[in-house]
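Box 3.1. Reading complex inputs
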Amino acid sequence: MRYCVIMCGGVGSRFWPFSREEKPKQFLDFFGTGRSLLQATFDRVLEVVPAERVLLVTNRRYAATIREQLPEVPEENILLEPARRNTAPCICWAAHHIIARDPEASIVTLPSDHLVLKERAFHEALRRGFEFVEGGDRLLTLGIKPTSPQTGYGYIQQGAAVEGEADFFKVKSFTEKPNIELAKVFLESGEFFWNAGMFLWKASAIIEAFRRHDPATLDVFAAGAGCYSTPAEMEFIDRVFPTAPSNSIDYAVMEKARNVYVETVDLGWSDVGSWKALHEVSPHDGNGNVTQNCRVLQHDCHNTLFAVSDPDRIVVASGLDGYIVADAGNALLICPASEEQRIRQVVNDVKERFGEDFI
Amino acid sequence: MRYCVIMCGGVGSRFWPFSREEKPKQFLDFFGTGRSLLQATFDRVLEVVPAERVLLVTNRRYAATIREQLPEVPEENILLEPARRNTAPCICWAAHHIIARDPEASIVTLPSDHLVLKERAFHEALRRGFEFVEGGDRLLTLGIKPTSPQTGYGYIQQGAAVEGEADFFKVKSFTEKPNIELAKVFLESGEFFWNAGMFLWKASAIIEAFRRHDPATLDVFAAGAGCYSTPAEMEFIDRVFPTAPSNSIDYAVMEKARNVYVETVDLGWSDVGSWKALHEVSPHDGNGNVTQNCRVLQHDCHNTLFAVSDPDRIVVASGLDGYIVADAGNALLICPASEEQRIRQVVNDVKERFGEDFI
């Protein structure tokens, strides 16, 4: 049977003051659709995987938020991590949990905080991906066709085409975030694709890959054989999870394994990783301004993003060029978009100066 | 006996979004002192005139706000205008009301929305002013020693000194708001003083001045002889007040009368007529920024005024030079200080676009 694992334990302060420690990005409704990024991710996958086989892996601190946002997810499908250990332990645990339910299970693993505009292409990509990985011992990653020379994403280089499977390729290499010159070369080459952190595999295949390439992590979770999907599972996880090495699935497995494939797709995708990225994927007025789910009376503003969490507030702005104006809860941020990488530092400064209530 | 009339019926949108139609500037606590400008004006005069002889003249729509802000003022001391007719009818009514209580009364008339930093100098100026006008049939205005070439104020030119009374002069002329070149000449001459709209006279003297120079207004109020300070007063006023010509006391009387004097004073005064004026009179940081009663974490900001009405909110700002950031209630204003004269238009636009709730 097909399963979905949505990873929704991420933290991140890049959308402060909208994102807060207790409510990071995946729980926010950036686009005013009425659904948070997590809820939209859940909704989107239901066409391919039924709700009873969608699992959420998150940090324990977000349990209440998850239950509030996705009451339709059965309690036993919420896997609460007692500690932050990046994606490799998360994926290894989920695979053990699922294989205990269904030894033949195949799994799509998805981030919870990305934007996907082309829903039908997404469904089609998942269906083709499932068929592909169910046919053998293959690890599949989705590679997004790049539309601009982004320096904020990792890239996947395609290798040999898979015979008889259009858009499926062996992976030649994974690369780190490039500089702008390299990103332009990547874009022009047509061989490089954005790494969106979406993976498909059989549960047995990813467990086997851990055995070969990251036995330390495998051992942690293999020790729990017999307890997965039983009442004993959480007690076991609470004890061993913190002992797992913190590592990403890319480093732990994908960059080492030989049976790694990429399915190249065009999903209208963005990781919405920053205010600037949000600005790029949102509808603009004629002067490049974005009003994110709020009412703005502007005059002589250009390339400025306005985001206001309170729907009853208005903004009147004049003479701003290239700014972010983000008003949420008890804080207002006004800064040049070019300085958005400072937001993390800003959040630390805010915490130090004004206290925990503001972060 | 000495009386005080505080005029507090003014409207004005220049401090939007802080000032609103239902709560104009005089009712706001701009400086976070815990007292509005009106309350501060009231507090300030009590040293010279006791509360039971302080009268408030305001528009009827502000009656509730007045009672809330100054519960210590007796109900019979609140004069509610049924219509807006500028300062001349207001002053003429107040004089008739007071002279009915006390034929020998002298009156100081004060605006309610100005800043006075030098309280003791203010008290001394009023005491000397009262003595001066009680000695004869004289109309006295306070002239503020200018400290910069302001183009936003009217000026009073001093004439001959009054013998034996330091700082008292005949008035040679009243002038309109000058351009910047003229304002510089005024400042250098030492003969010109800011017109702060503070006046002292005997009730009988100002009534006589109306008789001579603005008989149309005098006639409106003289017709009520016998009803002032009786239960019949308000009914009479409601009927006749709207028939009084709309005029300022300067045009109606001060610029025409021969017995007009100026007492030159240094009160640390500002009319706080705009965000820019507020910026000027408020304490600055080393980069010329003003944080008006709020918490701001700023980086690379210069000459910017931050005002936030909610004490539980913070602002994080970067890269602003010469801006006004004003956050109050359901609206946020961000605009260059140089465009503050557009605020009136902005408020109209806001009303048209978003409705009455925002103005």
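In summary: Chain A has eleven helices and 17 strands.
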